[in-house]
Amino acid sequence: MLAVEEARDRILHAVGPEGPSQEVPVAEAAGRYLAAAVPAQVASPPFDNAAMDGYALRRTDLTATGGELPVAFTAAAGDAPGELPAGACCRIMTGAPVPVGADAVVMQEKVEAAASGVRFAACPPAGENIRRAGEDVAPGEVVAEPGERVTPALISALATAGVGRVTVARPPRVYVLSTGSELCDVGGALAPGQIHDSNRPALVAELRRLGAEVVDGGRVPDDPAALRRALGEAAACDFAVTSGGVSVGEFDQVRAILAEMGEVALWKVAIKPGKPLAFGRLGSAHFFGLPGNPVSALVTFRQFVQPALIRWQGGHFAPVRISAVAGAAFERAQAGRTEFVRARFHWQDGRLTATPLSRQGSGMIGGLSRAHGFIVVEAGNHGFGAGDSLLVEPTGEWCSFGEPQPRGEQ
Ligand code: AMP
Ligand code: MG
Asked: Each residue of 341-353: pLDDT tens digit?
């Protein structure tokens, strides 16, 4: 069985940065991956401006102990730069252009009103409270590199640098399908033997969070003809993600049909939960057959599908692992697979503490919805003791750190 890292490496090798690029307005680029380096179009700031509300002056008009100067005019943000007459200062607001001739701005809290203007208690250092043109970004300087994800902060940096449009990878089109004759649509009344299809809405939500264009294939029973029809549609997408039917049960047919219509590149990974993962190729689509158990489906999505989607868009994937201390012991009878143990995180004695949730079954989705993240138990380990050092992977978007005691835990 392939180790988690090896399986991920093989998948990332098979996928590669292949997403075609398109140009979009910066304001609409959030979450996308840049396809080209972006140079600044303008300097930031574009002109010398005041960092404080105060008074701009020419330092040679003051002595070491300051002096008194008349106020020639007021410079507001948005004004064109004025010119400072000799022997005078001007009132200036944050962001206003520093007038020609001025070489310092004194904050207004440091001056006193005087009969003929304002009184300065000292001569300020040259350049005080002046934001110089280009001190943040020079024109032509590279603001962002190819493969960078467009974050709100990067949108701000690009807008500041005068960039209106960027070239990014287009979002991947991802076909999502649930397989299983037991499945009933969300919210529907369950017939005997049925369960609700929880994987599809959860996977659709994961894909939308990553900016993918979702093609909802619905659900199909464990019937080869229905599965062939659905996979035929999936073959035209960039990715296909199915859940269920990849294990060794009598009605688990996804792998056999993938082999018939495409190619199975790998099957079974030493991961818990999520062992029976299948990956391969189906027409133009990279194919992921995720296990049906809801926790397995979401864990394998995070470990394998998300990195592949990022890679396809030219982005760089690195798992976020943070060191923490175990809030309680966790033991397992059998080593051999990397286990992602659902846990709650909290701060204790200045350290991030991770406590395993009591219910770890791969079908127990309630625990995952309460988890702040996973404790990673390496394949060779039998567990850990309370107080041991650990590595954890936060679930991020699923929840934020909260109180140590979750619902339903003793
Ligand atoms: P499978 O991988 O098809 O053997 O399914 C493993 C377990 O996951 C079974 O108990 C299935 O009923 C359950 N399961 C499969 N697909 C889904 C789904 N879409 N939503 C919720 N549970 C599912
Ligand atoms: Mg099934």
From this structure: 999 999 999 999 9
